Backbone:
């Protein structure tokens, strides 16, 4: 089965930037729509962004549009999330996975990884 390992999280002040990376092993992600999700304390996990497998079309939730950029490197089997102008409400554990058209995770593709913690201080 595919294993996903997220990295790049940390503690930053509001307005700062982080770049998250998701490395997949066990199977190529080049033919998959991939995305990022996040789960804040006490809240359900939510979809954040996705990138298609073909021309690389991208999708974002409204609250991160203009601040986050998702990208993929099929040669390295990775998906990245550049996060700029971070806000305290972005604080969460961030996860990656394959994404269905309805923006839910494809858990038949891979189980959730351990995620990477992003903490934004005000």
Residues:
């Amino acid at each position: 089965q595919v294993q996903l390992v997220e990295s790049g999280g940390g503690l930053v002040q509001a307005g700062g930037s982080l770049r998250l990376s998701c490395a997949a092993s066990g199977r190529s992600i080049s033919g998959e729509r991939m995305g990022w999700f996040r789960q804040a304390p006490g809240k359900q996990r939510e979809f954040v962004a996705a990138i298609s497998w073909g021309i690389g079309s991208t999708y974002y939730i409204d609250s991160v549009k203009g601040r986050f950029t998702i990208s993929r490197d099929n040669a390295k089997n990775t998906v990245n999330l550049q996060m700029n102008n971070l806000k305290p409400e972005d604080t969460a554990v961030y996860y990656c996975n394959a994404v269905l058209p309805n923006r839910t995770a494809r858990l038949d593709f891979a189980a959730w990884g351990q995620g990477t913690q992003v903490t934004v201080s005000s």
